[in-house]
């Protein structure tokens, strides 16, 4: 059963700010053990700016306003369409993700993807430096091997060889990074990263003025159909990262969110469609999210998990994306 947990109008969503972005050539990064650089120079005169994509000088782009047709409310509609309509405008958050050049291939040529940071799925925007990546791997029928071929215009080009008929899974991660968020940035970050209420309460309980110390880990996964999509076994198996989506066995439109290999139940999940509209959903009591009623086409699942420290120390923030074509 699809569960909708939040409604956020496009005009009211704050942009994510001062995130743990990869270091990008020619760009400044978010604060690394320094809260001061997370603060805008003059918030009373300058628009609020974001360092989430690695560029603190870039203004936050407010999503365009959207007019919804009267018919949306005059006849029954599936819940997930209503979630997309009410829960999102054009996604302005910057996500680390893998973008296949094609979601269906015949297997006669190498399969290519881009590792990128993007604010408008499925359009790549910023190259992820090769030395900031780790855990690059491919899984599926045959003996798929993933390698970096070099940066392209807006992404880090990856290539897979040796894949055979079935669903291919490609994975990558950005190396963990320490980030300090200043008091004025904390509400913005928590407004964008939808985490468990208990974890958000632990941030709220920090002594004022707060400097929220975080270790950020970012994981990305994508699937490609090679020749024949019937063998889905690679998509159903976990790859061993801290936070990831896997396909539910035998159910084509259901996915499971795993944290350290176990289902993460009743947890916030975002679904982004090919227009960049972001819906706020949640896993059920078994850690599953059903996309059977979602619009077809390229999509991205996103989840964030925040773990407070046992005592003093840094919070652990895991961010995970899963790009697929339905």
Automatic annotation (TrEMBL):
Start-end of Polar residues biased regions: 31-47
Instruction: Report the InterPro entries cross-referenced here.
Output: DUF4198 (IPR019613)
A Pfam family matched by this chain, by name? Answer: DUF4198
Q: What segment(s) does the record annotate as region Disordered? A: 30-65
Protein name as it appears in the record: DUF4198 domain-containing protein
Q: What is the lineage of its organism?
A: Bacteria, Pseudomonadati, Pseudomonadota, Betaproteobacteria, Burkholderiales
